[in-house]
Amino acid sequence: MKEITRRELLDYSWKSFVLFAVGAATSACGSTESVLPTPDRIPTVNPLDPSPYRDLARFYPALDSLPINGEPMQLATTVPTTIYNFTQNRKVNQDPIENVFDYFESLAISNKSIDYSFQMFDRSSIEITKRPVVERSFVLVPSDGPNLSTNSLSEADKVAAVTLIDDEDPEKIKTYTFIKLVDVLNADQSKDPSDFRKFVTEVCQSTIFVRLNTDISAHQMAYQNLSQEILCNSISVEIEDRHKNILYDDHARSLKGMGFAGFPIIISSQKDYLLTPQLGDVIK
């Protein structure tokens, strides 16, 4: 069984009509990856695996050899969510993490719609809706561990974060998010400055589902997938800048010309930017 990567999704969607080259792991705005396996690609739990984390290990078998750091953290969120920390030297801050989930759970039911143009004259809107998920798992693993996908296309990509969606049972959709972190050993070792954004992006991916309304007639599947990525990566940049106390003018100026897969990033109005909460550090 192979998990499907963003590159595969886009290659499948565009197949004979390639508009641009898209990276599977990163973009100009530091994107991460969201994956929707088809039912025949969803791995099953190995009934012979004695590990209490066999439900997670079916996506990332390396977990069987990694010791967990403390007990799994159950979050007080609307959707049952558990954090599993398989790094040994990184700490998870529960209150700030719950604030991130609370923000996206509120946004998911806001019925917000954002005008967006993929092509010069198209009229599209990105509608924010709630992903119908009954359970979320977030798994933190060391960055020097095995790659997050066994797929040959992504072996060289070294994906830093991925959200997998198990929708085999439409009534019990679950998401599984894996995030790689540098497992710092001492104060002199640098942490990856993108850790905060990676986490925020994947919370968006696991909580929000984008519906695309567009008058583009061709390749709507690809545009649908792109709109999800564009939205979550745009919001994560916005939240990160608020986290850093960056003024709106500086935030907007820094994003001019920045994009995702060749398409412009979404820049909020000053009013919306200032309404975005200033969230604390989620991982130390």
Model description:
The chain has a six-stranded mixed beta sheet, covered by helices on one side. It has a three-stranded antiparallel beta sheet with strand order 4-5-9. The chain has one domain (6-275). It has seven helices and eleven strands. Helix 3 (94-108) packs across helix 4 (195-207). The longest helix has 24 residues, at 220-243. The model is unreliable at 1-40 and 150-157 (pLDDT under 50). It has helices spanning 6-14, 54-57, 94-108, 195-207, 220-243, 248-255, 270-275; strands at residues 33-35, 73-75, 81-85, 113-116, 124-130, 133-142, 161-166, 173-181, 208-214, 259-260, 263-264. The chain is an alpha/beta fold and 284 residues long. The relative contact order is 0.19.
At a glance:
The protein has 284 residues and is of the alpha/beta class. The chain has one domain (6-275).
Please tag this protein with its features.
11 strands; disordered N terminus; 284 residues; 7 helices; alpha/beta; single chain; six-stranded mixed sheet
Kindly estimate the percentage of residues that lie in beta strands according to DSSP.
15-25%
How many strand units?
11
Question: Domains counted in the coordinates: how many?
Answer: 1
Q: What is the alpha-carbon Rg in Å?
A: 18 Å
N-to-C order of helices and strands:
HEHEEHEEEEEHEHHEEH
Mean pLDDT: 79
The largest sheet, given as strand count, sense and whether it forms a barrel, is:
6 strands, mixed
What is the global morphology? globular
What topology does this entry show?
Elements: H1 6-14, E1 33-35, H2 54-57, E2 73-75, E3 81-85, H3 94-108, E4 113-116, E5 124-130, E6 133-142, E7 161-166, E8 173-181, H4 195-207, E9 208-214, H5 220-243, H6 248-255, E10 259-260, E11 263-264, H7 270-275
Parallel strand pairs: 1-7, 3-6, 6-8
Antiparallel strand pairs: 2-3, 4-5, 5-9, 7-8, 10-11
Helix pairs in contact: 1-5, 3-4, 4-5
